[in-house]
Each structure stands twice: as structure tokens, then as C-alpha cells.
Amino acid sequence: MLEAEVAFCDDLNILLKITEEFLRFCIFNLLSDPVMMDDFDSLGQFSAKDHMFVLGSIMDAPRFPRLPYADAVKLLTDNNQKLTRRGVRAKTVLHVAVSRRKIGSQHFIENYRNFLRFCIFNLLSDPVKMDDFDSLGQFSAKDHMFILGSIMDTPPFPRLPYADAVKLLTDNNQITGRGLTKQNEAFLVDYHKSPVFVTHFPSEQKPFYMLRSPDGKLTESFDLLCPGVCELAGGSIREPSAEIMRERNPSVKWYAEIRERGKPISGGFGLGFERLLQLLLGVPNIKNTNPFPRKTQYIEPIHNMVKFKSRYILLEMENFSGNKLSLTRAALFTTIAETVGDFHGDRGFAWVRTGLVVKVIDGDIALVRVESSSEKFVTSVIPFITNINGTELFLRTLFIGRSIRACEKFLIKYRRKELYGLLRTAETGVEKNAILKAVNSVTGKLE
Length: 447
Hints:
Elements: E1 2-11, H1 12-31, H2 34-38, E2 43-44, H3 51-60, E3 66-68, H4 70-77, E4 94-104, H5 105-124, H6 127-132, H7 144-153, E5 159-161, H8 162-171, H9 182-192, E6 196-199, E7 221-226, E8 230-237, H10 242-248, H11 253-256, E9 266-271, H12 273-281, H13 300-305, E10 310-319, H14 329-353, E11 357-362, E12 365-371, H15 375-381, E13 387-388, E14 391-401, H16 404-425, H17 429-441
Parallel strand pairs: 1-4, 3-6, 5-6
Antiparallel strand pairs: 1-9, 6-7, 7-8, 8-9, 10-12, 10-14, 11-12, 13-14
Helix pairs in contact: 1-5, 1-7, 1-12, 3-7, 4-8, 4-9, 5-7, 14-15, 16-17
């Protein structure tokens, strides 16, 4: 995620202009770089067919439409578009601070448009980058260059208030609801044949720090919609009053105090960096723009913060010699983890190592907790564990449950069944009395 803050900005139009110009700037840089354009040949199979056309339309658009949020919803409703909420968590954020004289929101929008065009210009005007496009062609859309060029050559992107956007969608039989879906956004872009600014979203849909209209119903905010990626960026003018911010959200007093420490009036936007790469390179699937795919199972800090589903494995341990076992939890943990590593390599070892816990060892019974995603690694190696710290034994999986209580219920039934079996084969009264005493000692409410 790329986030930018523009100081001394209190006009949404200025923020929209900055967003629009930034998009054109990115596309221009791509299209003007011969090396990068040569690399596009190897990206063709991964890109949308009309990718270059989309980029060209963005560059050629004189001005992205400004569509109020309510208009966008109405437009979607008229075009049978369904409105839902969607969000993508961003793990990487790049902050950009821009200091400017006091400018209004409409000028802000124009400046952002120039910013986007500047990115495209730098791409298209660099011969080295354009040459690299030859190797990217198989991953990119066929009309990718046309789309970049259209963004560079278009007049200012249309500004469409949200209310007008909703009306436009409704008039065209699009299904709408609370917010804009990706289908709604794609329709608006296709309708205007260029990137579109949807502005002035309802206050209840935006955060407390955004500047409101005089009646408090709308926000001085925008979303920039582009071909292929739909929502590329979102921005707003910030609320300058600390008192108003405290009224909206009393729990963020520390944030409101920033307004009392000399912070100027400002506006800012956040731009999805992977989405920008997706637009510049014409790659249909955003996953292909991330050089380092993220999975929570491989990130220790995330593992500590996110609650994962657990599985509890009930094991029975039997010694070959028949002697009483005296194993430690650490020994069993190390043996299981190392065996998983032997069978499944470093990936399996790392996956199991972060979530494996030996909860209990009681005689010949052990209870092991693992994450549900790594359960298969542990259960697949259990039959192959025959030695722990020099003690020869074998392990048998009795039960796998979602809670300790479930394992407890199973173990009670299992022990009772064993004892009743011994009771049937007992030959003397002494043996029967001992077994009956053991049966009575097995407690636990079975439901």
C-alpha cells in the first residue's frame, strides 16, 4: 500500500487531481521505457487481452469522471449490479508526504491525476524499461500498451459524485447495495472509457477523520477506479478540528491531539502498490504482482497474533519390553518434530514446529495439540516413530478432536471398554473385584 499525505490541502478536487496525475505518471513511465516494453512479450500469457488498450484509455482520458458515491450506487442499481463490502489487508505500506500551499479538494484530485500520469510517463519514456517489456509480454494483456497510452492522452478523469454514480448504475439496471462492488466499479470505468473518480461518499461509510460536508451527510473523499484493477486508490481531505474528531470517536484522543500540535490542514490518499503494478504490467491476477507471497503459517509475528484452529491428537504409547514408560513432553515433542522434518523436509518441520505442543503425558497416554493445517504432517509420521531417547516403542493414534474435552470423553469410553473386556475374561474373584474397582474409578460425565 502506498499512502500519501498532502499538507495545506482542504479541497477534494485538488486531491483528485493529484491522484489522477500520479496514475498517469506511473503509466507514462512504463510506456516510455523501451526496456520494460520489450519485457512485455514474456508477460503476454499472464495479462488481460485488452491490457494495453486500458492503459491507453487512461492516458488519453481528458479528465476522469467525478462520481458521487450515491450516484455510483444508483448507477449500479440501474445496471443490476450487487453492492457488497470487500477489503484486502495490506502488509506493506509506503508513506509519502507532500508539502503544498493551501489547496482545495478539486485541485487535489487534479494533482493526483497528474501523479498517476507521471508514473505512466516515466514507464513509457524509458527505453531500457520498454525493452524489458519483451520478456513480460506473455504475462500481459494484449491491449495493455493501448490502455496505458489512453490514460496518458485522456483529458482530466471524470469526477462522479457517489449519488450520481448510484443513479447511473440504477438507470443501467446494475444491482446496487451498501457500497460499490468490483462489478459496479468495472461498469463505471467501462461506461466512461477512462479512469473515474467517485467522490463524496456518505459519512457512515467513511472513517471519522475525513472532512464532512456542512450538513454532515457526505465526506470530502474519493475512490479512483481504473481499468482492470477497479479501485486503485482512495483519498480524502482530513478533518482539521480536534474537537469534532473527539465527538466522532472519543477513544482516539491521542489522534485528535495531533491537530493541536501544529499539524496543517491536509489531504491524503492510499494507493494499492500491487494494484498499481497490476495496472502498469497488465497482469490480470494480482497475486502475480507480489514477488514474496505471504502465508500466515510462515510468519511468526502473525502466528502469535492470529488465532488458528487447533486439533488434539490422543496417542497410546506401548513399550516393546512391557516396562512402564517414563517419557518427558520435551522428548516426545523433539521426536515428532524431527520425524516430520525427515519425512516432509524443512517446510513440514517449520510448519509443525510453530504449532506443536505436547499437552499431557500420563502413563501410556499422550495428548498432542497441533494446528489444523499441520495435522496431516503429524498423523502421517506417528506410525514410523519406534524409538524415543533409546526407548523402543510404538505409537497408536486413538482419537483426533477439536477440544481437550472431546479427547477426555473418548478416553473414558476407551478405558471402560478395555476394563469390561478384562472383566469378561477374569478367572478369579480377586481379579474381578480389582477390575470393578478400576471401572468405578473411571469418572467423567458422558453425554
